[in-house]
Amino acid sequence: MESTNESKDYIRIYILDLARRAWQDFLQWRLAMTADVYAPQFTNEDAAIAHVEASRWPNEVNCPLCGSINVHRMKGKTQAGYWLCNDCRDKFTCRTKTVMERSHIPVHKWLLAIHLMSASKKGMSAHQLHRMLGVTYKSAWFLGHRIREAMKDGSPTPLGGEGKSVQADETYYGNTSKRAKGYRKGLRHKQQIVALVEPKGRARVFHTNVEKGMGETVRELLVTNVDRKSELHTDESRLYTEVGTEFAAHKTVTHGSRGSEGFYVGKDGQTTNAAENFFGVFKRGMVGTYHKCEVQHLARYLAEFEFRHNHRAALGMNDKMRAEALLKGIEGKRLQYRIPRSDH
Length: 344
What we know:
This protein has 10 helices and 8 strands. The chain is of the alpha/beta class. It folds into 3 domains: about 35 residues; about 80 residues; about 150 residues, Ribonuclease H-like superfamily/Ribonuclease H (Nucleotidyltransferase, domain 5), CATH 3.30.420. The strands form 2 sheets. The protein has a 5-stranded mixed sheet with strand order 6-5-4-7-8, with helices on both faces. A hairpin with a 5-residue loop joins strand 2 and strand 3. The longest helix is centred in the N-terminal third of the chain and has 32 residues.
């Protein structure tokens, strides 16, 4: 009887020890996945500048204006953060030739905004950035758009490939409230969006040109962004009938319309669920976080959701890695604030 009790106590201790180890492993995983918002680069300007410089120039500092490595750091309080190129004789900082150029917002607030926007699955509104960073709403709005500009993929590679499939689907955004003053009935008054998605892979999303015609636009997007050796999966829309013949195979899934029976997965396993999942996250973010988006800014919002999708946890990325990838994307890009004029 005593041996039985001893074995039960041993099993109980063993199970508790396993639970303790699992909890410790979970805490280590969470610590590696998340960034400390009180870290020096988010609170101290000198640490933030050093962080950006280490990201831009991991080996040695080079002049972003002429490319020379013959540079030296300037001294003095008025020249803090400046470098001088000994060849072109121009001054530069870690902001030069990035989306942060000529910004009066401190670098540590830039880094915190980059982390917050890259870690928030459905985005972060300008009002939230305004409250958390302590900047004006106008500055926070422009800051958000410059970060979205940095999220754009500057050198995209074709999706899919031999033995792989790519899902293509379209959706419509905007002009939904019948109570709105400018509401007009019909899909032609909405903004057309096309998504090309690899199952368990990357995505590429486009705000299409309404004037060219949807069929012509969809074909151009497919043949320029998807490898012709890929297998194309779409719904029964006629937009893909002709262009589907230009790929290794074209399989459709019948979603059903006008009361007819529909399916989510075709008989050969074809589906557009990955593309529709992307649209679901995008629309929840636009409705629940941003609420309203003007046509001229829609492409940048799409780039934001595309970036987070392509750097998500399922692909082995955590919040730190996603923010570091975004920090790499600030280079060579510029977005200036211009007030639209009626004569332009």
